[in-house]
Fold this sequence. Notes:
Elements: E1 2-9, H1 12-24, E2 30-43, E3 46-60, H2 64-74, E4 82-87, H3 92-101
Antiparallel strand pairs: 1-3, 1-4, 2-3
Amino acid sequence: MFTLIYITASSVDESASIGRKLVEERLAACVNIIPSIRSIYHWEGSMEEDEESALIVKTSHELTPQIIKRVRELHSYDNPCIISIPITGGSRDYLEWLDDEVKRP
């Protein structure tokens, strides 16, 4: 089983740094970076609005806990958005490639 993990970060540079580490360490097969997103949210009693960057991480479901731990170590936020979304289907060839590229826990 495979998973997409959605992560927001303070900048494209932070996203690229986190993404590179996840791929280098074989925790992710691929990381896509969306350079600019506008985020609106409540934080510590105030409404906030920020420019952020987003990562879409493609990995095996079993690696999700390790990715969450690693992102928390690398991330500048106290409480980063890290959301796991199950992949329920897709190109068989792509999913086989994804499986070959990540390390087994």
